[in-house]
Amino acid sequence: MQKILNQVCKAVEQYELIAFKDKIAIGLSGGKDSLVLLYILAKYRDYIDSSINLTAITIDIGFGNFEELLNLKLVCDQLKVDFKIERTDIAKIVFNIRKERNPCSLCARMRRGVLHDTAKLQGCNKLALGHHLDDVIETYMLNLFNEGRIATFAPKTYLSRKDIYLIRPLVYVQERDIKRAISKMQFNVLKNPCPNNKISARAEMKTYLANLEKANKGVKNRIFGAICRANISGFRV
């Protein structure tokens, strides 16, 4: 876990992700990435900057797992982090009303909108998301393959319409290190209840990159290095 904290500190310093007296919302889905993010930011507050205030926000999409999501409050209480759960009808709208053939895009937009609004209502000036180094690469490759566009998400983004910053403190952390860390923690990782979870374009890209890494060891790190050296989406060496 110390390795991850060091990598988070590096990202915080390099991209100015956290400042004195920030009030930071943490997008908490209950998956491994968001749980590690929650834990690491709590430790960052405890040992590095006690001036910051943390609030975890969980969005209930409407898959019937509200009670399971509510149990995340126990984790937050243990880490002394405020907890807010927001109930929505996103699943009903996407799958039953709109009957989207490719529901991921609409669902993601709706979740982001609710998350941004809830963070602002909680008085937060920043929203931390659990995207890690592998997500950076996958997003870059999806944009390249599907849109012919050289881009990924940025470590820090200002949303002028919402007047809030999105920050991604885990951008230097590899997914394999998150898996190792979560295996040592006492938290229950929640399964993604979405029926499209394993059949999305991102899931296909994850498999493609895993196979590419087997055939060309270190290729993912080289792609990430290229992203940083080319200053793509604000990433830099």
Order of helices and strands: HEHEHHEHHEHEEHHH
Q: What fraction, in percent, of the residue positions are helical?
A: 40-55%
What percent of residues are in strands? 5-15%
Query: What's the CATH topology name?
Result: Rossmann fold
Largest sheet: 6 strands, mixed
Number of helices: 10
Taking Cα atoms only, what radius of gyration do you get, to the nearest Å? 17 Å
Summarize the structure.
This protein has 237 residues and is α/β, with parallel strands linked by helices. It has helices spanning 2-15, 32-47, 66-70, 72-79, 90-97, 103-121, 133-147, 175-184, 201-215, 219-229; strands spanning 23-27, 53-60, 82-87, 126-128, 156-159, 164-167.
Index terms:
single chain, 237 residues, alpha/beta, Rossmann fold, six-stranded mixed β-sheet, 6 strands, 13% strand
Describe this structure in words.
51% of the residues lie in helices and 13% in strands. A six-stranded mixed sheet has the order 3-2-1-4-6-5, with helices on both faces. Helix 2 (32-47) crosses helix 8, helix 5 runs antiparallel to helix 6 and helix 7 (133-147) packs across helix 9. The protein has helices at residues 2-15, 32-47, 66-70, 72-79, 90-97, 103-121, 133-147, 175-184, 201-215, 219-229, and strands at residues 23-27, 53-60, 82-87, 126-128, 156-159, 164-167. The longest helix has 19 residues, at 103-121. It has one domain (2-234): Rossmann fold (3-Layer(aba) Sandwich), CATH 3.40.50. It has ten helices and six strands. The chain is globular, with a radius of gyration of 17 Å. The model has no long low-confidence stretch (mean pLDDT 94). It has 237 residues and is an alpha/beta fold. Strand 5 and strand 6 form a beta hairpin.
